[in-house]
Amino acid sequence: LSPTRAQISSDILTAMGVDPNEPDANAKKIDSPKGSLLGALLIAALLPVALITANHFTGIWAEALVMVTWGFALPQRAVPNVDNVAPRGSPYFSRSNVIAAIALGVALTAALTGGVHYAVDAAAYLVECTHGAAAAHATQFMARESAEVTHNVREAQRDLAFFVMTVIIAPIVEERVYRGGLQRIVGERVGPRRSIAIAASIFGVAHLGIYRVAIYQTVLLGIGFGVAFEEGGLIASMATHALWNLYLLL
User: Fold this and answer.
1) Is the pTM of this model over 0.85?
2) With left for phi above 0 and alpha for psi between -120 and 50, is residue 175 left, alpha or beta?
3) pLDDT at 241 > cutoff 90
């Protein structure tokens, strides 16, 4: 019988002095203590409340300060594994995995948001064309959705503080809170698929202060960022989030 491809690969690695059963030599091992589910949920749920309060009383720069403090001080105390940059379930961090996960995350985010957005618009147009009584509601829905997205993009384009928040601060802090903390800890209990869905849903609800009609898009973003996190770890989800927000502003 001829050897299988797996046997050939194993023989080649053994001849090169590499143990095929060992992890990637270039990967960095990272220890990950168990985190607190209650702590992660509280931090994720109260972050938008703190941001809305800060913005209401003092403005965008105070909101940025609150976000940085919330993202870097609180999680370290309540969620001890938040700084683990390796993929959930793996003790190793690999650059190649991060790059691949970023590419996957961006592609999936674009496919989800684009596909669902066009499907929602198509359904609204169908209602507008076939149901005269509901036409006004369909038209209003599309107008409000477009206005919400356009308003936030323009704010970030013309205001340095909004731009910094959108492209740098928010991706880092939100990924630490919703993926590095919440999704990782939930995933330890219910597995990756459910943890992605749960974290993405809470991530979407957290943006109700920004979106109303277009809130479904933030849930889809959370799914894309969550997949990047599962495949490449915290750095991958941060980079995917930042690249997507930058893409929206260009």
Assistant:
1) no
2) alpha
3) yes
